[in-house]
């Protein structure tokens, strides 16, 4: 999708979102209106309900990030809505952080996207405990330690292998903003085309110099000056790298673990324990939402939004 098509799509999404808001706002002036991008409501809704309690709120899906921000500008351009309580939720992506002056009503993830919040070590521990019956028990559970350590080893290997693709995407996103080139469509490439993920090893399936073959309309990789691209810090890559890849890794590795747990010959066999977790690409965000990490900045934002004492 080119830049013009993207702008047209965002404009259409803004019109729909604003129409929904204006109609509901005319009937319910006391409610809080929360605007989301994509599937993000699946992550936020439970956390909003927890903080808001019985306070009414209305979710509105704007589509993409640009549409969320454009909707915010559209509403704030009309003084009629100054007294309505609105909040907008966006992913940081590979963009610059939003202005602090907008932070009162726009919540931006402290990581690449909400998907990254499903992938940190604490989230993995919660999933293993609740879905696989493997609790840490202060380091006394040897099978937990063995499986948990294996997943982290695989995740570290995955990060090392997927880092060049993330740099490539980040470089392209910067070029799209500054040079106006056609936007890279990331939805056309599956993670399985790039890496093979198993419990015993994670392998790269495509060389760095062949990344253009995944995205035929992208900038030739030899024309990218990677030295000018802000690098990743490396200490917290599960938060810095593209969230959809991170969450897809978690989904695949958990599916591999479920298969291993049901195999009597496997070292990870869980005798007498049946794993019910059934993850698909479509349901992972909602199925694992309760285990995802909730950043303190989100609680602070929601508490202030609800009007509760800090």
- The portion of residues forming beta strands comes to 5-15%
In whole angstroms, how far apart are the ends? 43 Å
How many beta-strand segments? 6
* Share of helix, binned: 40-55%
Query: Ranges with pLDDT <50 over ≥5 residues?
Result: 1-8
User: Over all CA atoms, what is the radius of gyration?
Assistant: 21 Å
Largest sheet: 4 strands, parallel
Domain count: the total is 2
What is the count of DSSP helices, taking H or I runs of 4+ residues?
10
Class of secondary structure makeup: alpha/beta
Strand line-up of the largest beta sheet:
2-1-3-4
Mean pLDDT: 89
What oligomeric state do the depicted chains represent?
single chain
Task: Please describe what this structure looks like.
The protein is of the alpha/beta class. The protein has two domains: 120 residues, Rossmann fold, CATH 3.40.50; 176 residues, no CATH class. The strands form two sheets. A four-stranded parallel sheet has the order 2-1-3-4, with helices on both faces. A two-stranded antiparallel ribbon has the order 5-6. A hairpin with a 4-residue loop joins strand 5 and strand 6. The chain is globular and about 65 Å long. The termini are far apart. It holds the Pfam family DUF4435. InterPro entries: DUF4435. This is DUF4435 domain-containing protein.
